[in-house]
Amino acid sequence: MKKFKKIGLTLLIFVLILTTAACSSETDAKPKSGSGEKYSFKLAHITPTDHMWHKAAEKFKEELDKRSDGRMQVEIYPASQLGTEADMVQQISSGSVDFGFITAAYLSSRAPAFTAWFSPYAFKDLEAANAARDTEVAKKILGTLDGQGIKGLDYLFAGNRVMLFKDKEVKKPEDMKGLAFRVTPSPPLQDFYKSMGASPESLPLPEVYAAIQTGVIDGMDMDLDASITNKYHEVAKYGAVTNHMVWPAVALMNKDKYGKMSDDDKKIIDESIKAAAEYAVKTRSAQEEEFKKTLSDAGMKIYEIDQELFEPYIKQFDEKYGPTDPLIQEFIDTFRK
Ligand code: BEZ
């Protein structure tokens, strides 16, 4: 009997050892906090492939691939291939597209706090605007998208706004009076030009070249990159490099997808987008003089207008938009020193 007991005990220990070994090898095979998961993402934006936003998208793709050891892959859909920005935001919100680089101008129509970014002359240069990404108010503005199924990840800066004129050298804001001026369809931008007496015309980017060529518009609010990539020097004689407003793309992600990722994978997303944003602003800042020269060599007269001449219009903007939203007021109070 004693002998049977001993054999039974030995068998029990043996079974226990086997079970423990099996369990531990199962645990070893499991990915650590989701780090083994594979992703095939889609990213959409509106600019052509030679614009800095597309280059930033490529950098993001490269960083994700590198930081995830190839687990995170991205298919990029540039140049409005997936529709308008309204369509893209809808697709991100529903989850059929994972990421988007969307203009803050468009987002201001869905989440009014984004209007804050269009406070005229809020930053002395691109680097100062880039540094604002890390402020509390900038993060709170991203957070206003939370209720729409969208996670606002970060901002990408690629050149401030300038003014191009078909055949009138506008030297002061009052010279804008009566000009038909293309402005992105966003109320704060349109109000800024209206306050100077221009008639804002809402035209999407692909229609701008023909409109100025045929005289439907007398000028446009644009950035230097897009001025070159769209060859506006062929149809506009004057370029005032005013840098009067920043022009951020906002990096968005489907909120559910982000929420379900492991902390390690969220970190990969956050750090990759940060690397892309830093890359974009650094590369673009270094190109400012080169871009002005490219346009000037192509025959456009490039000049500046003193910021002081815009002071009354800046004040009007702040007085109108500050009281409309606490975050816009906080933004103005933070950066208008
Ligand atoms: C624009 O509509 O002016 C624009 C949009 C995206 C990038 C550059 C310019």
TrEMBL record:
One Gene Ontology molecular-function label: carbohydrate binding
Quote any Pfam family the record assigns: DctP
Record key words, sorted: Signal
- Keyword Acetylation on entry: no
| InterPro entries with a match to the protein in the record | DctP_fam, TRAP_DctP, TRAP_DctP_sf
Per the UniProt entry, what is one GO biological process? transmembrane transport
A GO cellular component annotation in the UniProt record: outer membrane-bounded periplasmic space
Q: Which domain of life is it from?
A: Bacteria
Signal peptide segment: 1-24
NCBIfam families attached to this UniProt entry: dctP, TRAP_S1
By what name is this protein known?
C4-dicarboxylate ABC transporter substrate-binding protein
Which organism is this entry from?
Mesobacillus boroniphilus
